[in-house]
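Retro notes
What went well: the complex prediction finally ran end to end.
Inputs used:
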Amino acid sequence: MTRLRTNRATAVAADLVRAQGYIVLLFWGAMIALFGVISTLVNILGTSHSSAWVGARWWPQFFLLSMGVQLTAQFLRIHVSHGVTRRAFALGGVLYGVGMSVFSGIVMQLGFVVERAVFAANGWEQFHDQVDIVASPLRAMGSGLEFVALYAAYFFAGWLISTCFYRLGVVIGLLSIIPAVAPSVTMELLQWHNPTLLGMLGSAGRSLGLTGTVSTYPAIGAIAVAILAALTIAQLKTAAINEK
Amino acid sequence: MFDDYSPIYRQIAERIKADIMSGALAEDTQVMSTNEYAATYRINPATAAKGLRELLDEGILYKRRGIGMFVSPDARSRLRGDHRGRFFTDVVDPMIKEARTIGIPLTDVVDHIHKAETGENS
Amino acid sequence: MSFGIEVENLSLDYGDTRALDDMSFTIPSGTIVGLLGRNGSGKTSLVSVLAAFRRGSSGEVRVDGQDPFENAEIMANTCLIREGGDVADNERVSSVIDFAARHRLNWDAALADRLLDRFKLPRKKRVKSLSRGMRSALGVVLGMASRAPLTIFDEVHLGMDAPSRYAFYEELLNDYLEHPRTVILSTHLIEEVASLFEDVLIIDHGGVVMHEPTEDVRERGVAITGPIEAVDRFCEGMTVLNRQQLGGSGQVTTFGTMTDDRRREAKAAGLELGPVPLQDLFVHLTKDKEDRS
């Protein structure tokens, strides 16, 4: 018998990149066009100057949510029917989700870094009432980690929701939305907007970039992702492949 | 190729026997392999093998190890002997019955046979 | 390399509906088996369990001696092709082929290429724009080129036209001769493929009706024709599948081994014995009780 050639989970992740890679490129192309190029032009032409890339920050989370939603519905059947175990599919999905979140976090931070250079060259202030999240490599790393955690929490929420729809039907699928997105919505509130909530969680500032201490959010994100992924995998492991 | 319902292995065996009797398959020549029969007649090789095995059991074919199956030296004469023995019950009797059913006098049948012998209607 | 199958007391429930009911059978490795059953008889449920698409509710399934469910080795070497085609509808034929090539361990790219040409499948077209027949043909290409030790075609050929179906049978047989493996072909169009089957497994209402070598089944089906009283007298104690009467004469389809003595006895009683097409046997064997006359 021919041995299993490759690690099946990485093969699954590679399949997902192959299938969705062009959508990812389209998405980031649109993001750069919208928030990078156009808003920079507005900055150059306008009289008041502030970071445009900040406006881009929540689009990746919805994009990742939608990618998570597609995962089980579109890819479970074709993988299992090609001899991939549900377990390998689930692990491949985890790799893909984490990879996509890291990729998105890096692109976000790169955007800020590029924008910072443009603003510095023109003598404009990038952040007015917000923390300068890429002021130092440490801050950039910290706030980047927050982005990654947030995006991953959304991706895995989407994946859990679609898996609930697949396995448990429409009603439970709909009901699953609330607990599934609860962590990511909370994190988002914490990250950017709500000092009170932040204070309750014992954090001194709005982001890691500000405080320079280990933030609560990546921790919440990591725990949320672990729980969401575990719930998803548990359901996938016994999933039947129904007829279309 | 085959009729749809009688066992195919039997039809295979019958066909090989017919080829042997007609001389198309000479004695001591190799017959096709199981897989060749399967591919030619589009049948499962197990079915082809069953037909060939029956001929081996009857001694119509013999096996040379590692080479294949061959027509037995006496296969043709044996088969012809068998068929001669069955000719009247299998062929002539039903013909007579049929002739009677449709009202052909047996004398006409006999005449027809005589003509065949003298080559008039061949 | 091919996989044998053992099924013991397998049942499968969908909620309150019992799809498979205490099935037991063994498929020797390296055979081509015809899985015959009416629509809704449980064919698809059965092959889904064999290919680890779902788990049975109770009982045991062993493929190559192991439970196939979530078994990486067995699943990678099992290929179930269903009529709908489990491929990405938005993708082009060529990428569907590439996908299979990446996941199938024994993939034969040359065979896939040749079959794509033979079935005139446009490589550039997207799957969703293919006709039903073309989709089925794509399934056939995937199933054949995978060369999986356990290959199952679930009614996949039914969407194809007759020339394509015959091309499929021919390709399947030729490839099987070169690369023997266990093949299960589920169908209800029996006659045209029956010569490919070493065994037939007939199921009905989720249970096994018959599992025998195809040739034995053919041999055991006998149609007895003659004066109806004589036919009835002769058939007493035999398994009668069907009885038709037309005036004083009639025909009874029986199922069972008929010895030479019995054949002579029939002849002496003025009865004619004839073979029964496999399709007819199947229809009679899976007839609903209330339909039986």
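What we learned: The mean pLDDT of chain C is 91.
What to try next: split runs per interface for comparison.
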